[in-house]
Amino acid sequence: MKALTRPTRLAPGARVAVVAPSGPVPEERLAAGLDILRGWDLDPVVAPHVLDRHPEFTYLAGTDADRAADLQTAWCDPDVAAVLCARGGYGAQRMVDLLDWDAIRAAGPKVFLGFSDITALHEAFANRAGLVTLHGPMVAAVDFIKNTRAQEHLRATLFEPETVRVIESGGGAAPLVPGRATGVVLGGCLSLLAADLGTPHARTSARGGLLCLEDVGEETYRLDRALTQLLRAGWLDGVTGILLGSWARCSPYEYVRTLLTDRLAGLGVPVVEEFGFGHGEGALTIPFGVRAELDADTGTLTLEEPALA
After folding, report:
1. What does the alpha-carbon distance between residue 10 and residue 136 come to, in Å, rounded to a whole number?
2. Is the alpha carbon torsion for 123, 124, 128, 132 positive or negative?
3. Who contacts 146 (Cβ-Cβ below 8 Å, separation ≥6)?
């Protein structure tokens, strides 16, 4: 697995587009997130369909075609330096194949930010455009609006990425399996990674990668099913290390922890738990597509180069 192309860091005054590839966006939370971006001296522009609601499926932010058009237009606009997702939810899988990936590649690298359901787009940008993306807090997410740690780690990653080359979990991390490993960082939401298997242009293996996994609102047997699917498919063969994030609104963590140990310890690679990314409070921003070293014992991820150029 090779490191991917890094987008350019943001500068004061940069125009950033806010899109909604998945679920519907609460207007008041969007407004609060935009205020934070303006406070960073960014120029946020909201895509036309961000506040839409699908006429039949209320869990979608507008139609698939409109959500795809918003992202496509933003990415291909030469005045836009970054495309930031407003929230996750569900729906990215429905629109990802409506995007013109030839045009996206031709437009060149830009910052792309999101997590949760946006995992489907992280995988697409990696596999179809060869670009580094950022797994981090979204513009209309409660954690971004209210949590200083989440805000500051994202801001540093966007503007001063050399200051966060060593990503520390914040003290909660502990090794499920001790050791060190190097590889290219990838991953996201467990259930989305499992759902991507067998789809067009999907990554066929995590071989050579440091895999980040987290999820939200899933019963333990569903997490078991997703992990087992990845194992049975051989997708985890050759992974070099695993970082585990939050498991918010899942079963009690000790139960989830037992499952994670059962399914992952047999891989024989370092595994660190509670690393501080995902749906938990104060979530860290993790770059995907950058080569790094994981130290499971100290709970650190050291990037070989800054996330953004």
Report:
1. 15
2. negative
3. none
pLDDT at 172: 79
Residue 282 has pLDDT above 80, yes or no: yes
Q: Average pLDDT of the chain?
A: 97
Phi/psi of residue 154, each to 5°?
-65, -45
Please give the positions annotated as active site. 116, 214, 279
pLDDT confidence bin for 53, thresholds 50/70/90 = very high
Q: Give the pLDDT mean for 296-309.
A: 97
Contact partners, residue 56, CB within 8 Å, separation at least 6: none
> Which tokens in the block code for residue 80?
């836009």
Measured between alpha carbons, how far is 184 from 289 in angstroms, rounded to an integer? 6
- Look-up of token digits 């490191």: 3
Class of residue 217 by CB neighbours under 10 A (exposed 0-12, middle 13-18, buried 19+): exposed
Tell me the C-alpha distance between 30 and 27, whole Å.
Answer: 5
Cα dist. 108→6, 29, 44, 67, 176 in Å?
10, 30, 20, 20, 39
Token pair for 171: 């003290």
CB 269 within 8 A of CB 175: no
Q: Among all chains, which residue has been given the structure tokens 């080569």?
A: 291
